[in-house]
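Bug #77: duplicate submission created two jobs. Keeping one. Sequence:
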Amino acid sequence: MAYKFAIISGSTRKKAPQSSKVAHYVKWLLEQQLEQETYLLDLSETSLKYWDETFWSDYKNFDENWAIASKEIRNSDALVIITPEWNGTIPPALKNIFHLATKGEMANKPALIISVSSGINGVYPITELRLNSFKNTFVNYIPQHVIVRNVNSVLNNPQAIETEDDKLIKERIDYTLKILMVYAEAFVKIRDSEIIKNNPFPYGM
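Kept job's structure:
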């Protein structure tokens, strides 16, 4: 069965963003190999207005780009969050999405975190996302994650294996996306349950 996967690439870097490269590989793999539908929000190509208090009073007219992204994410079944590690944290523009996505766009949907590093780091963004991005969004991160280390040297050719590291990371991404597909199927039932639909505590306990 086909599901819709929202892919969010968190880098705003305009010149050769490696997170965008990873996102496009994930998009290609989901569509061409796993036969799933995708939506890609690439923050290096689409700018979103930063959250401020006017969002509370007029969120539907807050930002045209976010209105489009919000609808696409809301209509998805699962998410792939791709983040670089900048100064040991996630980019501000990616953090902003979790301020904006508080109207149920991500609620009770499984999500895979893919961290991107030009070196051998990449752990801190995963820890940060798991710690403080779920409270009002109700996104559900699956236990598995992926760290694409030395990203400049891998995923440069989707259809060919270039090095042993390239082979291993492609196998890892393929495996975790297949797991995410299983979660996507299971979470349909969760979202359809009456107790989930009628949540009286939209901002936590």
